[in-house]
Specification:
Blueprint lengths: L5 E6 L3 H7 L4 H21 L3 E10 L7 H24 L2 E6 L7 H13 L6 E9 L1 H11 L7 H6 L11 E4 L18 E4 L9 H13 L7
Parallel strand pairs: 1-2, 1-5, 2-4, 3-4, 5-6
């Protein structure tokens, strides 16, 4: 039986706790997470069931963290994307970003915009990073773009950051947290949530495979 490609989203919690447990600085946990993310994204790109991978890298609330940690994380994201540019083209991967671009470093914002433009015609796989992203913030920004006071759900959806992406099918949240935490509130309305007690640096491809198997065992009724 042929399945439609899935939209898999990951909330990669637990990087700082992983670092603390090993006596390291918080950004060392983020560094390990980036290494792990490369492995996971390559696996997803090759998996026949996955068409879109969304990863929440930095939320609108994360600005409350230590400025040193924030700067280190922004640099990690920029370095990651620089290294991935050639891979994205070689592996026919489209890159897209959701979230605000006005508060992050200008160099990162430009790099993301350039990468989105460069990869826009790639169709084999989509890598979707949420940076300075919050679900409420996205909906508010969408409402501000609309002109009609009699807008429908379809009208609002059309003004989200990436309305062309299918809604999320599976959300995997690591580190034993059981909150939705303002994550893609619109697009996750009927997503299947799967929670892992593992910290994200310890999440492996076997956990993603297990998530897909669990997803396939669930009955999605969409309110019917």
């Amino acid at each position: 039986m042929k399945h439609a490609p899935l939209h898999l989203a990951i909330i990669p919690d637990g990087n700082r706790r992983w670092a603390k447990a090993k006596g390291l600085m918080p950004w060392n946990g983020h560094e390990k997470a980036v290494e792990n993310f490369r492995t996971i994204s390559d696996w997803c790109r090759q998996h026949p069931r996955i068409g879109i991978l969304t990863v929440w890298c930095f939320s609108t609330e994360n600005w409350k963290r230590d400025p040193l940690e924030v700067r280190a994380l922004m640099k990690l994201l920029e370095d990651f994307l620089k290294k991935e540019q050639n891979e994205l083209m070689e592996k026919k991967t489209r890159f897209v970003h959701s979230g605000r671009k006005d508060r992050i470093p200008k160099s990162l914002a430009k790099l993301m915009a350039d990468t989105e433009e460069e990869t826009k015609n790639n169709t084999d796989f989509t890598l979707h990073l949420a940076i300075d992203y919050g679900g409420k913030d996205e909906v508010v920004r969408a409402i501000k773009k609309m002109e009609s006071k009699d807008a429908t759900e379809e009208d609002l959806r059309a003004h989200l950051d990436h309305p062309e992406l299918q809604d999320i099918d599976i959300i995997l949240r690591s580190s034993g947290e059981y909150r939705t935490s303002n994550f893609f509130l619109w697009q996750s309305a009927y997503a299947e949530w799967i929670f892992s007690k593992k910290l994200f640096p310890d999440i492996g491809t076997e956990d993603l495979e297990a998530a897909i198997l669990e997803f396939d065992e669930r009955k999605r009724r969409f309110g019917s």
